[in-house]
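My current task is to audit a protein record that another person submitted. What it holds is a sequence and that sequence's fold in token form. Thanks in advance; the entry in question is below.
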Amino acid sequence: MNKNTFTTVKLAKGEMNVYDFGTLKLHAYKTNDFIDDEVFIVEKNGKAVVIESPCFFDNNKELAEYLKDVKVEGMLVAYHGAGATFLPNVPKYATQNAVNYSENGGGKALIDQFTGAFGEIFDSSVHKITNIIEPGKVTIGGIDFIIKQTDDAFDVEIPEINAVYTHMLGHDCHSIVAGARHADAMIAELRSYIDRGFDLILTSHYTPEDLKDAETKIKYLETIKKIAASCNNAGEFKTEIEKQYPQYSGQNYLDMTAGFFFA
């Protein structure tokens, strides 16, 4: 189906874009929070699986209310471990490295950073994982998912709708790029999506995208590497990136990327 074929439900704070594939629906929740979080709900036969969690208290309540008429069978917690007041009694699934990322690694550092920045409105509590999963197929609520472990956590394929979930894409916004090696890994992953012909690419900080968006992001990452190689410091790097991409959002992510390239 065309990625633009969806209906939009306006909520008090966020909005829900609902993609209807017949037997399966994909609900893409745009939180409109301070870090542009996106949460995905895969629904089939009245049962649902949530991919990632919102992490601001008002979004937690809003999404829980939206889901009150479906039976949530589980939540896949990959890169966004915060927000544990959201659906506290639902089984939580994650790989062991994702648990480590949220409790002790880079995810924990981000949670601490966001807690300092946003204070009481941010739900810094970390989801307790009830089910440790391995790479490969896992079936939750009658829906098949393919788990692919990554350096930090895991990506999720949804074969029934030919979609893949990964942490970040965003064809017209900056991403967190932790140096040239990380950029190369991101490029390789995006090229694999193109080779495999996914219809939708779902990410934690953007509405669903497609393979043209992946191609755009590859060019962006290659440009970032070239600019970094020609600059002497983070300030010079940021100035050049902003010249190349004046309309891009995600300034905070660009700041983080500059910090990684010029540590």
User: Anything to note?
Assistant: Residues 147 and 165 are 10 Å apart (CA to CA). Residues 211-230 form the longest helix (20 residues). The mean pLDDT is 93. The domain at 1-167 is CATH 3.60.15.10 (Metallo-beta-lactamase; Chain A).
